Amino acid sequence: MRFRIERSGMFDTILVPTDDSAGADATIGHAIELGETYGSAVHALYVVEAGSAPTELPDDERTTVRDRSEARGREATIRVTDRAEERGLDAAREVREGVPYREVLSYTANHDVDLVVMGTHGRTGADRVRLGSTTERVLTRADVPVLSVRLPEDGEPTPAAAVSYDRIVVPTDGSDHAERAAETALDVAETYDAEVCAVYVVDSTTYDLEDAPRSIVGLLKEGGRNATEAIAEMAHDRGLDVRTDVRRGPPAEELLEYASTIDASLVAMGTRGQTVGSGPLLGSTTARIVRRSTVPVLTVS
């Protein structure tokens, strides 16, 4: 069963940094879905990268290159706002020139954006925003949640337009960062009546579990159970279905396998975390998951 709410206060304004690639439709689809659900305004931003016109060109040719880039930016942002307005959502668009991640962060701060929806990679070139490294820079610096959506590689089919969030993986390491990320994840889960899957990974790359005393391994697993049960209790308080799991192995690999095994539709986690018990689960692991996950990843600073 789906619940739609009006102006929940969590995602009132959603920003979609976009380029002119066909694969960006996957990102737009998620932004529109969330916009409809939360009654959000959807903003589209295209950044013409500073210095994208080769310096060896004459001034008039450089101006022509820049003008073409700006025209593509207008077309790309209009595609976003048209789709938003077709769904009855407020929409705004802007084309800027500068360093992509800095412009995204600046726009986010200046327009009180509550959520940024970005692709995990994108085409590169003289007139396109690099939506790969840009995304990672944004999610590590943004003060608001970032939803990273995997874009199709060249030659891959564009993902289906249908978007759902019915099973959400919430990795935890027991840290305050993880708990704050879980709060946001549970807000989304409650809105979509989704099942919550809390998981903790005992990092085998940090601990030699084969040689460690059984008491140490037991303590690590107990810490994992406590961490996941804390998330489960938060989920139960919201009336949500929840399952918990404690795994061991390289954190990114374990989490990606877990998400695939349970057919997750979203992974929600913090951008940093503690290094005890599960290793740097919510730091470097987050970047690996964002790069490799086939399902969207919601990161919370």
Automatic annotation (TrEMBL):
InterPro entries: Rossmann-like_a/b/a_fold (IPR014729), Universal_stress_UspA (IPR006015), UspA (IPR006016). Residues 55-74 are annotated as: Disordered. Residues 60-74 have a biased composition (Basic and acidic residues). It holds the Pfam family Usp. Residues 10-150, 165-300 form the UspA domain. Belongs to the universal stress protein A family. This is Universal stress protein. It comes from Natronorubrum halalkaliphilum.
